[in-house]
Design brief:
By secondary structure, the protein is of the alpha+beta class. Helices cover about 40% and strands about 30% of the residues. It contains twelve helices and 19 strands. Strands 1, 2, 8, 9, 10, 11, 17 and 18 form an eight-stranded mixed beta sheet that branches. Strand 9 and strand 10 form a beta hairpin. Helix 1 packs parallel to helix 6. The longest helix is centred in the C-terminal third of the chain and has 28 residues.
Length: about 400
């Protein structure tokens, strides 16, 4: 089989890239190692930057998002048992975010691709990428109990940190930057109506907590826990009690979360990772294959969407002009935005979490930074600008 662009990975990055290329008339094949049901049920991020939402709309993939997504115009910071709201539109010239789960984005993109007849192979396990520095790289994969090969002009790895694509970049030309954090998140999904209008980020002496949403009837909530925590050690009642304790307010002592059945519970490690460069010959890395951010800044899905938007523009430019200048600049272009997002995510994470090694001095520094965010329009504007999403590089 032959195609112009072979895309490894049928998550949001690979599917969005396929959609953008389809709309431009560039043929492509998406290979996903899992089955459709698994892909459509993977629980991941749920906050879409303004730019990401606009990209989905422009690609013809935003109709259900606009019907069912929740537009948020700010976040609430809780610290020192007080609450402070950061208003996005007034600080960013009108930008906001959309709460719409990654699972729903994936479902929408899969439905559109299948309806349009675009090649999308589930249960296709990619074994290797051969000839990345040649003009005809080949993806070797196994599908329907047969070994197969897909010859491409370009290969794009959207298959995550542990995928084949990242490993296809020789170690001799690949540099990895990493940071592991000394805490994790215990996340729950609950059939409980949110009692808050916008996301709440809470700093407390007991540790960080986050109140998010999935819909008007479903809450997504997180607690900072030690690394290696077993979710079974946290019965539902203990989780709810701890959440209420971390969100507690002095001026509203009766404030409590709405409780309901917990339908999912898992522990998420916190880490940062960047692989440079994001290109090797005709192999391009995008999304988690190139970078991972801690979820505190809500940047993972949005960075992936930005990567493939930049790459789609570069491929269209090459097709239309014969010039490879945008493709040659892809890695540097994306990495500038990636490191900005890494820094923002790092600041959000280290400011809001309680490090086991923290001294009282460190805690006072955190509170001073949070107080600045609550009182300084300049500091709040920087947070809002990064949270709602920086402009895509050109």
């Amino acid at each position: 089989m032959r195609t112009t662009v072979g895309i490894i990975g049928g998550g949001p990055a690979g599917l969005l890239l396929g959609r953008l290329l389809d709309n431009a008339g560039i043929d492509n094949v998406v290979l996903e190692r899992r089955d459709r049901a698994y892909v459509e049920q993977r629980q991941r991020a749920g906050i879409l930057e303004q730019q990401t939402a606009d990209t989905l709309r422009a690609a013809g993939a935003g109709a259900r998002m606009d019907r069912e997504g929740l537009v948020h115009h700010g976040i609430e910071l809780r610290f020192d048992r007080g609450a402070h709201r950061v208003d996005f539109p007034s600080l960013t010239g009108g930008r906001g975010v959309v709460v719409y789960a990654q699972t729903e984005v994936v479902k929408d993109l899969i439905a559109l691709r299948l309806a349009d007849g675009g090649p999308l192979c589930f249960d296709a396990e990619v074994r290797a990428v051969e000839g990345a520095t040649s003009d005809r790289p080949v993806i070797h994969y196994r599908h329907e109990a047969e070994d197969r090969a897909l010859t491409c002009d370009y290969v794009v790895g959207c298959d995550g940190f542990h995928g084949v694509a990242r490993e296809a970049v020789p170690a001799s030309v690949r540099t990895t930057y990493e940071r592991d954090y000394p805490y994790s998140w215990l996340g729950i999904l609950a059939q409980a109506a949110p009692v808050y209008d916008e996301l709440i980020y809470a700093h407390s002496a007991r540790g960080f907590a986050l109140a998010s949403v999935r819909s008007p009837t479903v809450s997504r909530l997180y607690l900072q826990v030690p690394n290696g925590t077993d979710p079974a050690a946290w019965p539902d009642e203990r989780v709810w009690d701890e959440l209420d304790a971390r969100f507690a307010l002095d001026d509203d002592p009766t404030w409590k979360l709405e409780r309901g059945p917990v339908t999912a519970k898992a522990v998420l490690p916190m880490r940062s990772h960047v692989t440079e460069p994001m290109r090797h010959g005709r192999l391009f890395l995008a999304g988690d294959a190139a970078h991972i951010v801690p979820p505190t800044g809500a940047k993972g899905l949005n960075l992936a969407a930005a990567d493939v938007t930049v790459l789609a523009r570069a491929l269209i430019h090459q097709r239309d002009t014969g010039s490879a200048d945008l493709l040659d600049a892809y890695s540097d272009t994306c990495l500038r935005r990636v490191w900005r997002a890494e820094h923002f995510s790092y600041l959000m994470t280290t400011t809001l979490h309680t490090d086991p090694a923290h001294s009282p001095f460190d805690t006072r520094l955190q509170l001073a930074q949070l107080a600045r965010l609550a009182t300084s329009p300049h500091a709040a504007a920087d947070l809002a600008d990064n949270y709602t999403g920086l402009p895509l590089p050109r």
